[in-house]
Design brief:
Length: 204
């Protein structure tokens, strides 16, 4: 997480992030060091520490800024289509060389709490915020129940993608992603209908 301080030299910061990203893809997280980033970028370690508190922060910042540019948030007017596009973009990214790095970062994070904290801050929270925004738009348009549990819905919709990435190792196809999203949405609708019926029964 970038630290507050004097105004940043944006170009220099972008150079450092670009270098950390390239080193990560070339060598993996464990091989990247602040010393190597500084040497490759032609800056001092003090310059890096002026903006980032540790290696995990600068590497994650570089990686997830690059990742975000490949996963824009859609707004088609349909919550189903928006979630489908968003999830498909995520699946395509996960299948790429860059996306495979997510599995490594999660694995390294099991032994490195600083890295895991940074991963959650730079990747998990922004992606969940995007998904929550899409679902909330659907609620506001009347496509989804106002009683929808947004956080649990995100787990239901996106959890299978991470299961395939980290556990089963199965590849993604657009049809598979669409099938997962359709099943999840049917489950959400059924759950909301059940909650509404239970509330009506309790009100009698």
């Amino acid at each position: 997480m970038a630290q507050k301080g004097r105004p940043r030299d944006v170009k220099l910061q972008q150079l450092i992030l670009s270098v950390s990203y390239e080193l990560l893809l070339e060598n993996g997280y464990e091989s990247v060091t602040i010393e190597k980033i500084a040497e490759t970028a032609g800056v001092s370690k003090a310059t890096i520490y002026k903006w980032w508190p540790n290696k995990a922060a600068v590497v994650a910042d570089g990686f997830f800024k690059a990742a975000a540019s490949q996963m824009p948030v859609p707004d088609t007017g349909s919550v189903m289509e928006d979630i489908l596009i968003h999830a498909t973009n995520l699946a395509v990214f996960m299948e790429s060389k860059e996306g495979n790095m997510i599995a490594e970062l999660i694995g390294q994070g099991q032994m490195n709490q600083t890295l895991m904290k940074v991963f959650r801050e730079y990747y998990v929270k922004p992606r969940r915020s995007e998904s929550a925004m899409i679902l909330t738009r659907g609620i506001n348009r009347g496509e989804l129940s106002p009683n929808l549990d947004v956080n649990s819905s995100i787990d239901l919709l996106y959890g299978p993608l991470f299961y395939r990435l980290l556990v089963s190792g199965e590849s993604f196809t657009p049809d598979k992603v669409r099938g997962i999203i359709l099943m999840a949405f049917n489950g959400l609708r059924n759950l909301n209908e059940r909650k509404i019926n239970e509330r009506k029964i309790n009100e009698k």
